């Protein structure tokens, strides 16, 4: 059965790619009608671009797949709660739903907005599956860096 866990595991595969490349291990997939239409993982170091977050790359791939700048019926699955920059892009995409695995008290959009949502009013935001796997991958990454 294809469900949130299935798609979050797809996002985790992307996060593992980032980990292997020495990037902060965050991955994302955009899903529409039970089909992945965009995927991405952090490539900030590889591209020397502070905007090359997993969500941004997955969104761009989804826009290109659809030939549209809006994702009102799509869901983004991301392994860590979006930062403020990614939240802004998600707002403008009008994405229908965002599912994240792990909260990020240090770098999420909440650091700048508090509990006020920066997402489009129709966007549903949910904590989802694979929280422990995502947190462990992040913990391992930063332990290796120290």
Describe the structure.
This protein is an alpha/beta fold. It has one domain (4-145): Cytidine Deaminase, domain 2. Helices cover 43% and strands 20% of the residues. It contains 6 helices and 5 strands. The protein has a 5-stranded mixed β-sheet. The longest helix is centred in the N-terminal third of the chain and has 17 residues, at 4-20. It is globular, with a radius of gyration of 14 Å. The model has no long low-confidence stretch (mean pLDDT 95).
Keywords for this entry:
zinc; APOBEC/CMP_deaminase_Zn-bd; five-stranded mixed β-sheet; globular; alpha/beta; about 150 residues; single chain; about 45% helix; Cytidine Deaminase, domain 2
Show the helix and strand layout.
Layout: H1 4-20, E1 27-32, E2 35-41, H2 44-47, H3 54-66, E3 75-80, H4 84-93, E4 97-102, H5 110-113, E5 124-127, H6 131-145
Parallel strand pairs: 3-4, 4-5
Antiparallel strand pairs: 1-2, 1-3
């Amino acid at each position: 059965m294809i469900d949130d866990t299935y798609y979050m595991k797809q996002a985790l595969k992307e996060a593992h790619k980032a980990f292997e490349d020495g990037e902060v291990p965050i991955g994302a997939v955009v899903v529409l009608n039970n089909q992945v239409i965009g995927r991405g993982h952090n490539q900030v170091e590889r591209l020397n671009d502070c905007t090359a977050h997993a969500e941004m790359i997955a969104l761009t791939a989804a826009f290109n797949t659809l030939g549209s700048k809006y994702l009102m019926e799509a869901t983004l699955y991301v392994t860590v709660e979006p930062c403020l920059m990614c939240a802004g892009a998600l707002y403008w995409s009008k994405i229908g739903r965002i599912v994240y695995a792990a909260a990020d008290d240090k770098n999420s959009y909440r650091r700048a907005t508090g509990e006020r949502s920066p997402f489009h009013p129709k966007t549903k935001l949910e904590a989802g599956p694979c929280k422990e796997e995502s947190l462990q991958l992040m913990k391992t990454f930063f332990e290796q860096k120290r």
